[in-house]
Design goal:
Elements: E1 7-14, E2 16-20, E3 25-27, E4 32-33, E5 37-41, E6 48-55, E7 64-67, E8 70-72, H1 77-96, E9 108-114, H2 124-139, H3 146-156, E10 168-172, E11 183-188, E12 196-201, H4 212-222, H5 224-246, H6 250-269, H7 280-296, E13 301-305, E14 311-316, H8 320-331, E15 340-342
Parallel strand pairs: 7-9
Antiparallel strand pairs: 1-6, 2-5, 3-4, 5-10, 6-9, 7-8, 10-11, 12-14, 12-15, 13-14
Bound molecules: ligand DP6.
The site of ligand DP6 has 14 residues, from helix 4.
Length: 352
């Protein structure tokens, strides 16, 4: 009798915010970066994508994906690459064990929900592709490690590979042409530095002007400064950042985070035509952080900005009042997503 059963599995994936930024592809097809990067994974009780993957002979004939109840196009090369890689792994399992149901050939139905505003520019593609890849891996009962899955998620969206882990995560750029060593690895678990906090300042929920994907390609094609960034600046920052995390040295962590963000936005300005992601409110947030640090006589807060105007400010728990007070002083009273304090996510709790 034909198998009409619906097979399904669910998972969640957190958002990560880079402190050493990925900005440039050396191979756009395999999504291989021009430099390594490093991020902090944020608590998924505050920011996460929940995804259910199902397959059945009663679905289809096409694969489908619903995000926050609206149908998404799955025909793009990135989503297709993730589906293809996961199906290949499942087919190999089925070939080695004849008693397994034949899931690899069945149409997929994916349903995803974010618990934060998708349009707010909060790295939703990172959590989105990480959750998609792990939900299908769970559905297919693949024995893959998070690092193996990161190789697949990377092809969906580069930053997604870092959302397979909690804590402090490096995406090592790798050297192989096939991308097999361009994967995410844990630098330290969240429990290593439990006092770390991030304040998310959503200064604008507007959709970004230039997408990361196209912005970074124009940077690689036109910016002289980016060559220096890839060859000299980022390798230095990766090393300093790993050491700062190992030693829980906030001053160095904060300094590198801010210099990194500035270096990334400088290469955006050096891109032709130039790309501006920060606005006047972003600049006011930078000044607020400078004020906090001047008053403290040392670095106790660090800002970082991705491809949009929203700020993430890292600090340690004991400095919560100083940070919140100064930010309020400059930007006014904040509520909800305008100013949210989040903790660092623990890897073990991600799929729980
Ligand atoms: C500025 O991962 O969104 O947030 O691989 O093209 O999907 P694609 O790009 P994406 O770029 C993220 C850029 C960044 C920096 C970072 O997260 O490292």
């Amino acid at each position: 009798m034909a198998d009409t059963k619906v097979y399904q599995a669910s998972t969640t994936a957190p958002v990560n915010i880079a402190v050493v930024k990925y900005w440039g592809k050396r191979d756009p097809k395999l999504n291989l970066p021009t430099n390594s990067s490093l991020s902090v994974t944020l608590s998924q009780s505050d920011l996460r994508t929940h995804t259910t993957a199902a397959c059945s002979s009663t679905f289809g004939p096409e694969d489908t994906l619903l995000l926050n109840s609206s149908p998404q196009d799955v025909s793009g090369a990135r989503t297709q690459a993730c589906f293809r890689e996961l199906r290949t792994l499942r087919s190999a399992l089925e070939a080695s064990n004849a008693s397994l149901p034949k899931l690899a050939s069945l149409p997929l139905r994916i349903v995803s929900e974010n618990n934060f505003p998708t349009a707010a520019g909060l790295a939703s593609s990172a959590a989105g592709f990480a959750a998609l890849v792990r939900a299908i891996a769970n559905l297919y009962e693949l024995p893959s490690s998070p690092t193996e899955l990161s190789r697949i998620a990377r092809q969906g969206s580069g930053s997604a590979c870092r959302s397979l882990f909690g804590g402090y995560v490096a995406w090592e750029m790798g050297a192989n042409e096939d991308g097999s060593d361009s994967v995410a690895v844990e630098v330290a678990p969240a429990s290593h530095w439990p006092t770390m906090r991030a304040l998310i300042l959503v200064v604008s929920a507007e959709k970004k002007g230039v997408s990361s994907t196209s912005g970074m390609q124009i940077t690689v094609a036109t910016s002289e400064l980016s060559k220096h960034r890839f060859a000299v600046v980022v390798p230095k920052h990766m090393e300093a950042m790993k050491k700062a995390i190992q030693e829980k040295d906030f001053e160095t962590f904060g300094k590198v985070t801010m210099v990194e963000s500035n270096s990334f936005h400088a290469t955006c300005l050096d891109t032709f035509p130039p790309i501006f992601y920060m606005n006047d409110v972003s600049k006011a947030a930078i000044r607020a952080v400078e004020d906090i640090n001047t008053r403290a006589g040392k670095i106790i807060a660090a800002y970082t900005f991705d491809a949009g105007p929203n700020a993430v400010i890292y600090y340690e728990e004991e400095n919560t009042d100083a940070v919140a007070g100064a930010v309020k002083g400059v930007l006014g009273e904040l509520d909800g997503w305008e100013g949210k304090e989040v903790k660092v996510q623990d890897t073990k709790a991600i799929d729980a």
